[in-house]
Amino acid sequence: GTGREVFEPRFTYHGFRYVQVTGLTERPTLETLTGRWVHTDPEPAGDFACSNPLLNRLQDLIRRTQLNNLHGIPTDCPQREKIGWTEDGCVTMEEAMFNFALPQFYTKWLHDMLDAQDANGHACPIAPSPGWGRSQADGAPGVLSDPWWGGALVRTPWQLYRYYGDRRVLAEAYPAITRYLAYVGQHAPGRIAWAQEGDWLEVGSGGPSTRTPPPLASTAAYYWYATIASQMAAQLNRPQEAREYEELAQAIRERFNQKFFQGATGLYAADSQTAPALALCFGLTPPAARSLVLTNLVRNITVAHTNHLSTGIVGTLYLFYALMDAGQNDLAYAVATQKDFPSWGYMLAHGATTIWEAWEGGDGSHNHPALGSVGAWLYQGLAGIRPDPSGPGFKRIIIHPEPAGDLMWAKATYRSVRGPILSGWRREPRTLWLTISLPPNTTATVFVPTPQPEAVAEGGRPAVAAPGVRFLRREPGVAVFEVGSGRYDFRAPYP
Question: How much is the pTM?
Answer without folding.
Answer: 0.96
